[in-house]
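Memo to structure team: turn this sequence into structure tokens by end of day. - J.P.
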Amino acid sequence: MTSGSLERLVITAFSDPQYNSQTGDPFTVWINPASYTHDYTITYADRQAPGSPGASPEYDRVGQEVIAFDLVFDATGVIPPPIPGMPLPSDGVAGLIDTFVKLVATVNGVIHRPNYLKLSWAQLQFQCVLSKLKITYTLFKPNGTPIRAKVAATFLSYASEKQLAAEANMTSPDLSHLVTVMAGDTLPDLCHRIYGSSTYYLRVAAFNGLPGFRDLAPGTQLVFPPMTRTEAAA
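Reply from structure team:
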């Protein structure tokens, strides 16, 4: 691709939280967003004592990132289709919007939830799920067929537990850890190494969907979530 060529926003859907299994065809927008917002949030707990002269907020967690933008769907002929020679749809923008909604907002019957999404547009590479969608139809043919619409979309960042644990790279027992099983490792031993007690092994096995806690296969990646003694005994 040359530096002067047009690159369009592409939305790709996946049926798994690891983003390995693509589902459906990627959706290429006809008109790129004029702008988009990218919000970051860090939440804090209020630990200010009564009567204290100032606040001392205590770090709680990193919140979800949010990306929002407006898309214009136009089948008037003023904007050429993304594929050269592609005819204008006879149903105006109705079919285009239906395809878009099915990809990003409709429950996937296989996974019983909407698809996991990836937004790709130059430097923007964003794994996410749809949070909100608002469609406003603004222009029509004499017979009522919509030929222009504005779609306001909001997306929340998404990462699987394994991704979050791998990226955290922290050692505190009250945080998630991602561990690759080595030959000779047992789940009780790994729990003792991370939590300081082997009593957590049943909860960790259930969290990772293991059929049992014996005979761990070397190379298997396991997530060790935050755990308390109450949870271990449950």
